[in-house]
Design a protein that fits this description.
The chain is an alpha/beta fold and 357 residues long. The chain folds into 2 domains: 198 residues, NAD(P)-binding Rossmann-like Domain (Rossmann fold); 144 residues, N-(1-d-carboxylethyl)-l-norvaline Dehydrogenase, domain 2 (Orthogonal Bundle), CATH 1.10.1040.10. The chain contains 17 helices and 10 strands. The chain has a 10-stranded mixed sheet with strand order 1-2-10-9-8-7-6-3-4-5, with helices on both faces. Helix 1 packs across helix 9, helix 11 runs antiparallel to helix 12 and helix 12 packs across helix 17. It is globular and about 65 Å long.
Length: 357
Amino acid sequence: MKIKLGPIEETIITREEFPLSKARKNLNKETISILGYGVQGPGQSLNLKDNGFQVIVGQRKNSLSWKKALEDGWIEGKNLFSLEEASEKGTVLMYLLSDAGQISFWPTLKKNLTEGKSLYFSHGFGLTFCEKTKIFPPKNIDIFLVAPKGSGTSLRRLFKQGKGINSSYAIYQDYTGKSLEKAISIGIGIGSGYLFETSFKNEVYSDLVGERGALMGAIQGIFAAQYHVLREQGHSPSESFNETVEELTQSLMPLVSEKGMDWMYSNCSTTAQRGALDWWKIFRDATFPVFRKLYKEVSSGKEAKRIIDSNSHIDYRIKLKKELQNLKNSELWKVGKIIRSLRPEEKKCSLDQKKID
C-alpha cells in the first residue's frame, strides 16, 4: 500500500495484503539456506521453519554457533550442514554471516551461485562497499535484501509472542523477474510486522549511522556522561543509575513506543515537560555536527574501511572481549546489573550481597 509519511509517500507492505499463505506459495519449490548462525541466523531460520518453509542451516562445524544450532533443534545431515554443503544445496542463499565472515567466505560461495539462484542479505554492507569487500556477484542470479529493524533475538522473541518487527526490503538485481515477490515472501516468513522499501546503499548508510548514533553509540555516551556527572556531584550509584537508565528504559521509552514523544511529554509533570522542551533543542544543536561528521564518514566509505581493517586483525576477538569486559566492569553497568535483579519480574537479590567498587 501507499502511505503518506511526512512530506513523501512510501510503499508499505503488511501481512494483511501479503498473507503468509501467499509467501509460502511463492517459495514452495525453494530450499532456503541460512548461511551463518550468529546474530540474525537463529531468529530468521527458526521463524521461517516454524512458518512452514523448507529451511536448512549452514555453519562452520564445531564452532560455538554450530553447537547453538544443534541445541536449537537443527539436525546434522538433515537440515544442518557445513557452509559449503548448505551453499550447494540451497536455491535461496541467505547470507547472514558477519560482514567480515562474508568477505572471507565469498570466494567459496560465489562458486555455488549458479544461474537462477537467489542471494539474500540482511545488510547492504557487502555490496555497497564492494570495492573494499571484493564481493562482486554474478549477473545471472536474483539479489535482494530484507533487514529487520532489530536484533535476531528480538525478531524471535516477538515472533513467539505473535508480534512482529518492522523490516526494510530492497532489490539489487532482478534476473528472473521474481526478486520482489521472493524478498517480500521471506520478509513475511521471518516475522516482519510490515516492510518498507529502501535501497542497499540507503540501508547500510542509515544502519551504520543508527548503530553508532542514537541506537547504541550515542546513547551509551549520554548514559556514561550523565551518570558520571551525577556521581561526581555526590549522588548515590542507585539514584544515578535510576535517573539515567532505569527510568528511561522501563518507564518512558515504552510510552514513546506506544504513542509518541509528544504524548509522553503530555503525561509527565509540568516541571518535566518544561525542562524537556527547553533543553532538547540544546542537545540537538550540540549533536548536529557529530551526526553530520558521522554520516560523512559512512557515506565516504571511510567507516567501512576502518571496520574491515579492524575486524580483519587476527587478535580482533581478543581485543573485543577486553573492550566489552571493560564496559561490563564500569561502575555504571555493575550498578545496572544489581538494579535489574531487583525488578519484580527478576530473581530477587539484596544489595548487601553485592559490592560496588
